[in-house]
Amino acid sequence: MRDDDGRKLDHKTLEAMRVRAVGQVEKGARVEDVAAALGLNRSSVFKWVAAYHAGGKKALKARPVPGRPPKLAPDQLETVYQIVAGTNPDQHQLDFGLWTRDLVRQIIATRFGVELSLPSVGRLLHKLGMSPQRPLHRAWQSDPRAVAEWRESVYPGIAADAKAKGAVVYFGDEASVRSDYHAGTTWAPIGQTPVVRTTGARFSVNMISAVSAQGRLRFSIVDGTMNATRFLDFCRRLMRDEGRPVVLIVDGHAAHKARKVTKWVTSTGGRFTLAHLPAYSPFLNPDEWVWKNVKADRVGKHVITGPDQFKALAIAGLRRLQRLPHIVRGFFADLNLAYIKVSA
């Protein structure tokens, strides 16, 4: 668009331009030349000339375009923002857990008696600085007080004790990935859903890993389901590989609290310590990001042909992370994990 484009001008200036353009055409100038000189579309100049012939000079006056008045007042827009940003639909007796344009439309109609179309609701939400996003799901059983206590006092105490005795702090977790787990997207012609042929057999790989804020990653592939014996094997290898005291923070899985595990931890004389996260609080564990990286970003995007290839993919994904400590350190940048960065 040219700097002298008439669409950028105010009404007074545009009116003067119309009079000038019509005057030049009436004196014999070509419409194309006048339009080019003024940075306008020639069809606009033709319309002005026709209007002048039909109604004279007064027909060239620029009239402000009033537009539609907003249906919601500023205070109502603020209320919509507070509702969507600060509450869930089920708090308003709406039978859904996520905000959709239709649910927002229902709220606006109920609260303010204003009916909006779905596209209008979408534009309104964008205007309020919102966009559709994939939410994080958290168990309702998670205790906010326990979480706050963990962040503010329990973990800082663990970190301080670990530093005093020269121990490294790890966060550990287990995960399983199945052969029918798929992730990612692929380009394809519009309207033609692509098909990726893969095995129809179902099998899984069980894994355990641990990460530190320094970017270290330790892992093991577990044959069978996780139990106290397999967890204990991982702990022993972790302590042996580190060659210094270790603190391992895990969730409340039964295998982590088994008697044989507790007995072995005691026998290490402080060289190995287990700590447990608050219940139903995986968002406090950076090791969750390992599984997102390996499962969603790596294994889930491959064509699976068989159990051995599937297991090899999982191992390759974990070994790749071991070689990229900066990515592992990046897991700790999650805002929910800021307590670790402060105390580590």
From TrEMBL:
Record-level Gene Ontology MF annotations: nucleic acid binding
Segments forming a coiled coil: none
Domain Tc1-like transposase DDE: 169-297
Stretches assigned to the Winged helix-turn helix domain: 95-152
InterPro entries: Homeodomain-like_sf, RNaseH_sf, Tc1-like_DDE_dom, Transpos_IS630-like, Winged_HTH_dom
SUPFAM superfamilies xref list: Homeodomain-like
UniProt protein name: Transposase
Taxonomic source organism: Acidipropionibacterium acidipropionici (strain ATCC 4875 / DSM 20272 / JCM 6432 / NBRC 12425 / NCIMB 8070 / 4) (Propionibacterium acidipropionici)
Lineage: Bacteria, Bacillati, Actinomycetota, Actinomycetes, Propionibacteriales
